[in-house]
Amino acid sequence: MAPVATTTAGSLPRTDALIAANAARSFDDDGFTLVSTPEFQQLTQDAVADVVERQREAGIAQLGDGEFGKAMSNAVDYGAWWSYSFQRVTGLELTEVNAFNEPPVRSEPGNIRLTTFTDRRDRQRFPAVYAEAVETGTNATAFPTTTGPITYRGHDAVAQDIRNLTSALREGEQGFLTAIAPGSAARVRNEYYATDEEHIWAWAEALREEYRAIVEAGLIVQLDDPSLAENFDQINPEPSIAEYQELTRIRIEAINHAIAGLPKEQVRLHVCWGSWHGPHTTDIALADILPVVLEAKVGSISFEAGNVRHEHEFAAWDSPAVPDDLVLVPGVVSHATNVVEHPELVAQRIRRFTDIVGPERVIASTDCGLGGRVHRDIAWAKLGSLGEGARIV
Q1: Are 306 and 332 in contact, with CB atoms under 8 Å apart?
Q2: pTM
Q3: Which class is 5-391 in CATH?
């Protein structure tokens, strides 16, 4: 049997030079758009070539750019997968109130809404832990607010991402690029659209241009949408499962609109419960969201399966509702611990899924992005275990 294919969830550790170069960049007049230069673009391209080669050496088959085109100015940064999108649309500006300092919102039956990030239920349950022990780092740019029409302006930036990765790939290799999904992008504060749903659909209409550009370049586009699972923790008090499923379905419908017409085998959806290193005791169960997530018209789904809060949920995928052609991309090494998984444990985790759908429909991966979440040496050791574990399945 051929070894099980491997990939990553996207983010990989940036080099010191790339982090320093990002930190040294200036902002445009809007205060959050980072100014690029030919020298910076060359530095990024060289770094992508290096990170692709390191993935090959670790035994990774589906290769990514490490998300190096998404700015990180600090070694710890949980938000680079999201904040890059501010650089690529119109309609945003910095305001005194934003997604991180707006007042809490309380939900009620029939009217569930997202509250603030600091009002998450897990954070309220463990205030001392979050105050003293949960490090989330510093974002490369401030978080803006939607104050006008959202339209796409990131054509040059995504073209550069595509060039950086495709120039590093060898003939016959498959590459992928990550891009934020509409529902997660729309979690910036909205002061323009009449409803949250309108806001989400505006992002969907804009971001479909990015998705199309990636796919047309022959790459897989991975839609990063932690909002599908982690929004549950951001509704206070806890909503009913039925109401949460309806909230989530809006986000899936926006995804389907944004990817309409694209070959689904080139579209991967990434679902996670948020990569911050907290207790996660208020996470929703996979079985409660999977029926809605499976409505996404994608060819593969990446998800956390090595995270100790969710590892036990692998059996949820043994369901008639899972399409016969859906490829599972379970995370079998985790961003949530500094302990490097033993290759035999990695192989064991992979077998749980090959036993359900067969080895040809499993691509072993990382739980979430490793870059900005664990030390770079630990990250590369984990990828080594991932590659070795896949070879011994």
Answers
A1: yes
A2: 0.97
A3: alpha beta
Give residue 91's pLDDT: 98
What share of the chain in percent tops pLDDT 90? 94
End-to-end CA distance of the chain: 9
Alpha carbon distance 233, 344 (integer Å): 33
pLDDT of residue 151 exceeding 80, the answer is yes
Closest CA to 182 of 93, 253, 280: 253
What's the pLDDT tens digit per position in 14-65? 999 999 999 999 999 999 999 999 999 999 999 999 999 999 999 999 999 9
Closest C-alpha to 224, from 184, 265, 276: 184
> Looking at residues 127-132, what average pLDDT do you find?
94
Contacts of 32 (CB under 8 A, 6+ apart): 86, 87, 92, 94, 141, 142, 143, 144
Residue spans per domain, the chain: 5-391
On whether the CB atoms of residues 7 and 363 are closer than 8 A, the answer is: yes
Instruction: Tell me: pLDDT of 185 over 80.
Output: yes
Ramachandran category for residue 59: left, alpha or beta (phi over 0 → left; psi -120 to 50 → alpha): left
Give residues with Cβ within 8 angstroms of 161, minimum separation 6.
65, 69, 177, 214
Q: Please provide residue 179's backbone torsions phi and psi, each rounded to the nearest 5 degrees.
A: -150, 140
Per the CB < 8 A criterion, the answer to whether 336 and 276 are in contact is: no
CB neighbour class for 293 (10 Å; exposed up to 12, middle 13-18, buried from 19): buried
User: What is d(CA 188, CA 66) in angstroms, rounded to the nearest whole number?
Assistant: 24
Asked whether the beta carbons of 203 and 251 are under 8 A apart, the reply is no
